[in-house]
Design brief:
The protein contains 8 helices and 12 strands. It has helices at residues 10-22, 33-42, 59-68, 84-93, 105-119, 152-163, 171-178, 187-200; strands at residues 2-6, 26-30, 47-50, 75-79, 97-100, 126-129, 132-135, 140-143, 146-147, 168-170, 206-211, 215-220. Strand 3, helix 3 and strand 4 form a beta-alpha-beta unit. The longest helix is centred in the middle third of the chain and has 15 residues, at 105-119. 32% of the residues are buried. It binds calcium ion.
């Protein structure tokens, strides 16, 4: 899952990036509205975390432009501004949620999960596909009740494929869901992760199919 963070407070921004990366999200952080908007136009994000008081393009203008571009990406506003009129204005402009600073990190990550769930129409933090079960809150996966040992990136990849179960996910989309702009992983790395995941899913009735030339698709099959 890839998050766009637009926040000009360096201390808060830094802390947020660290915590979100620890929670296995890929995060691109921009310190002004203009650069954040450019990023939003060039890259598909799963979620936007947006400050209101921003240089060049404020949060309200940011949401307006985003929605004019017909971008349905969920937006959570993070601001010290608790003026009720501004809260109403933010929602009316197209924000999906509003969190007043200072906030506790577990509350932010719970709201992030809720928004991502809403978009992908999952109603709980658990995803079950055949014998595979994912707990997207605890970042754990189980096969027939046994916990799989997965690296954070392996879990993220498995999560993306599970959320898009039965649909082809391109290698580029998988790379984007794993990486920040300042990191670089190639399609080879994706192949390595998929190879490892397949081994770990060997006993399970869920497989990651290679759709030649397109990407990967998670499928469920019945045992022999
Ligand atoms: Ca600010």
């Amino acid at each position: 899952m890839r998050i766009l963070l637009v926040e000009d407070d360096v201390v808060l921004g830094d802390a947020l990036v660290q915590s979100l990366v620890n929670a296995t999200y890929a995060v691109d952080w921009f310190r002004n509205g203009k650069e954040g908007m450019l990023a939003a136009q060039m890259q598909l994000y799963d979620l936007v975390l947006l400050d209101l008081g921003l240089p060049f393009l404020n949060g309200f203008e940011f949401i307006q432009r985003l929605r004019l571009g017909k971008q349905p990406v969920p937006v959570i506003v993070l601001t010290a501004n608790d003026n009720p009129e501004d809260i109403v204005r933010a929602f009316d402009t197209g924000a999906d949620d509003y969190l007043i600073k200072p906030f506790r990190l577990p509350e932010l990550t719970a709201r992030i999960r809720a928004q991502i769930r809403r978009v992908h129409t999952h109603f709980s933090s658990k995803i079950a596909i055949g014998e595979l079960e994912l707990d997207t809150k605890e970042r754990m996966a189980f096969v027939k009740g046994e916990k799989l040992s997965l690296s954070p990136r392996e879990f993220s990849l498995l999560e993306t494929l599970s959320i898009k179960f039965g649909k082809v996910v391109t290698k580029d989309a998988l790379i984007e869901s794993l990486c920040n702009w300042d990191q670089d992983i190639g399609t080879n790395a994706i192949e390595v992760y998929v190879h490892r995941l397949r081994k770990k899913l060997a006993d399970c009735n869920v497989t990651i199919a290679n759709i030649r030339g397109l990407g990967y698709m998670m499928e469920q099959h019945s045992h022999g």
